[in-house]
Amino acid sequence: MKIPVVRNILEVNERIAAENRRIFSENKVLVLNLISSPGAGKTSLLEHTIDALHKEIRIGVIEGDIQSNIDAKRISKKGIPTVQINTDGACHLDGNMIRETLNSLNLESLDLLIIENVGNLVCPAEFDTGENHKIMLLSIPEGDDKPVKYPLIFRQSSVLLINKIDLLPYVDCDINKIKKLSYRINPNLTIFEVSCKTQEGLSQWYRWVKKKVNALARKKSQR
Amino acid sequence: MKIPVVRNILEVNERIAAENRRIFSENKVLVLNLISSPGAGKTSLLEHTIDALHKEIRIGVIEGDIQSNIDAKRISKKGIPTVQINTDGACHLDGNMIRETLNSLNLESLDLLIIENVGNLVCPAEFDTGENHKIMLLSIPEGDDKPVKYPLIFRQSSVLLINKIDLLPYVDCDINKIKKLSYRINPNLTIFEVSCKTQEGLSQWYRWVKKKVNALARKKSQR
Q: In this structure, is residue A131 part of a structural domain?
């Protein structure tokens, strides 16, 4: 009896996410859904990405948290449009929650919308929000066995950022094993090795984002 | 419409968990439900705990994973009874999953049963398995803002193990802030600062486990 109910919730979500995707597409906004375990570095990545790109790209942010607005406060200091979603216990963002924020965001004035999901490597992978790409972070202290244990998010993501590589000397983690296991699950995955602390490797990530935003902008001018 | 459905699932779970709890109590087995984000160190803690206590205490383990049996293999090397639950996508263990393993475990021959939950700081907090205590791990690289962002698990747990304190010199994390925020949510929380890598602080944890197991054993002999 339980599975059909969950299936039903997922089907309703698919429908709402498809409608979100249509709205994002009409407005030529690139939407990235940022997913990781708690404390892997989503908000730090967001801060650096905003600093690096906000002069060329108009960025907006949706912050998803079970409770609190710590992250939204960090981000809104950057002076960009930020909306907080408090899920009030729920373990992921869904299409409907994103839909409800769209009145608070002027999509026409944005090139890039980044959704920071609830810190959870499992449930956000199942719920489409209407994004163009799921972007996942895995941090070095989490260890090198995560692709095998949480395969869905590795399969669903376009980009894997392996973060906190500055900690490699101090932990037992084989970065080549992470990459090998990840490619086995998802051969199309783009992998960047980065440190939000030292900023090593981040420029490749910025280039990826700019390329994707520019591809949408080109389509816009061709209309 | 969604909330009543979830509520119903939780109510069914409460009933099954209560029945599990009765079975555990009849068999005088102490049951600990180990919860953390992916990679915070649950399996390492288990390995050390087994090494330290298996000569005095008869230990069994239930390993919860979405997929794979990496952790169960690590644990069964210790020569103790281990059962693997693969949740096949589900983000937490529930009362029913635990119930189904009980035929594979001879509870009468155990003093301590440790359940290693799916790596997830959110959902396992909501689903009672019938354990005596929820034990949570938070690792230093996850940062010091987690109690505010994931309060439910801090509220539900009897013990918080702050793990990977060997990494304190290399990350921005204020351990006193974690403790202050945690006590604000749950003044009864017992907090241990540990490193599964260097084994610093683990003896206090072992003492806590032994005390709880012995309290049950005393009750047994008083019957």
A: yes
Structural domain contains residue B193: yes
**Residue B24 within a domain:** yes
Question: Which among B118, B141, B146 has CB closest to A139?
Answer: B141
Instruction: Answer yes or no: pTM beyond 0.90.
Output: yes
Interatomic CA distance for residues B124 and B145, integer angstroms: 20
In-domain check, residue B223:
no
> Counting one residue from A and one from B, how many pairs have CB atoms under 8 Å apart?
115
Terminal Cα distance for chain A, rounded: 48
CATH of the domain at A15: 3.40.50.300
Domain span at residue A32 reads 2-218
Q: State how many domains chain B has.
A: 1
Q: pLDDT tens-digit profile of B18-74?
A: 999 999 999 999 999 999 999 999 999 999 999 999 999 999 999 999 999 999 999
ipTM: 0.89
Contacts of B152 in chain A (CB under 8 A): 66, 89
**Chain B residues within an 8 Å CB radius of A139:** 39, 141
Residue among A39, A123, A145 whose CB faces B37 most closely: A39
Question: CB-based contacts of B149: which residues, under 8 Å, 6+ apart?
Answer: A38, A65, A66, A67, A68, A70, A119
